[in-house]
Design brief:
Strand order of the largest sheet: 1-3-2
Structural class: mainly alpha
Number of helices: 16
Strand content: under 5%
Number of domains: 2
Oligomer: single chain
């Protein structure tokens, strides 16, 4: 029954691809992203200023359980100070919120366009990649995000994802892809970086945020240079240093799973990595240079793929990819 439902889902996608008047308004997105970032203004997250509470008698200790323990004599002063410092350390690693994620990801999306050739001017190709990507994102672990997909006008085989739902693939990469299952696997890998919050996780571990009690829009509005520092830090990770190799392996596995959930053959990403590994374009591909080597990725996926049984009915859609994409490049 599951196979029949997935095949019907892909059939429906085929109908959409054939008849849809869907248009990816990337110009609108760019106009939104290029608006000046907010200056120092009162944030919705900032609570109104209140009169400082009167100092409590020393024997009452601090607030919460630590203060209660101190008042009852369970904790001495030294132990209380250590516990309070520990609580502050935990607060510093609170997750970055969606509003902050979108602000960071939107600014990085602009940087992607400026660094990697801008948008490829072909509405039909943009629509096709967006439909495949949104279909895969819909069965991901964060389907509620408003995802945006775009094709970059560069011959280098690259793919990127920035926090908040922005995914990019290059014309050079699309020329190397052989079927829709491979495209779904590549897009799934990038979607997984967003759903698993890999860039944000790396940012939170950086020295840049070590002195903050969390990264909020209020904090970035208060310190106008902080936002630029955050963008520089994440940009360096995504485009130069690369994410931790374990995060890339995780994105391979989750991306494969997302494509499979949508009904594509699960070996799509694995097969594309094989193609890319044999290509002479390796040196110019950030998709490879900031990732673990192809052999390591293939070994990891080789241990993961056997979990998918009876995948013979899951299509790769080579003919549809050739007729839809190859004529647009």
């Amino acid at each position: 029954m599951k196979k029949i439902i997935l095949i019907l889902a892909l059939a429906f996608l085929s109908l959409v691809l054939a008849q849809s008047s869907y248009s990816f308004k990337l110009d609108d997105l760019l106009e939104t992203l290029e608006k000046p970032k907010p200056k120092s203004q009162p944030s919705k997250q900032e609570a109104p200023k209140q009169e400082a509470p009167k100092e409590q008698p020393a024997q009452q200790g601090g607030g919460g359980l630590i203060g209660l323990g101190e008042s009852l004599g369970v904790f001495d002063k030294k132990t209380s100070r250590i516990l309070k410092k520990s609580v502050g350390a935990v607060q510093a690693f609170q997750p970055i919120g969606l509003e902050e994620e979108k602000a960071i990801g939107g600014s990085l999306a602009l940087e992607v366009f400026h660094k990697f050739g801008g948008m490829y001017k072909n509405a039909a190709l943009q629509t096709y990649v967006s439909l495949v990507g949104k279909s895969v994102a819909e069965v991901s672990d964060r389907p509620e995000i408003d995802y945006h997909f775009a094709v970059l006008n560069t011959d280098h085989p690259n793919a990127f994802a920035t926090p908040g739902g922005y995914v990019f693939v290059s014309v050079g990469l699309l020329r190397m892809v052989q079927n829709e299952a491979q495209l779904a696997g590549v897009l799934g890998h990038e979607i997984a970086h967003i759903t698993r919050k890999h860039a944000l996780e790396t940012l939170q571990r950086s020295k840049l945020l070590s002195g903050l009690n969390g990264l909020t829009m209020a904090a970035m509005n208060k310190d106008e240079g902080l936002f630029d520092q955050v963008i520089d830090e994440v940009s360096n990770v995504l485009f130069t240093r690369g994410l931790d190799k374990n995060l890339e392996h995780e994105a391979d596995k989750f991306g494969t799973e997302y494509a499979y959930r949508m009904g594509y053959h699960p070996a799509g990403l694995n097969n594309f990595i094989q193609i890319l590994g044999k290509s002479s374009s390796q040196g110019s591909s950030i998709f490879l240079s900031t990732h673990p080597g192809p052999q390591a990725r293939l070994q990891t996926l080789g241990r993961f793929l056997p979990r998918y049984k009876a995948v013979g009915l899951y299509p790769i859609l080579a003919n549809r990819y050739r007729t839809t994409v190859k004529g647009q490049l």
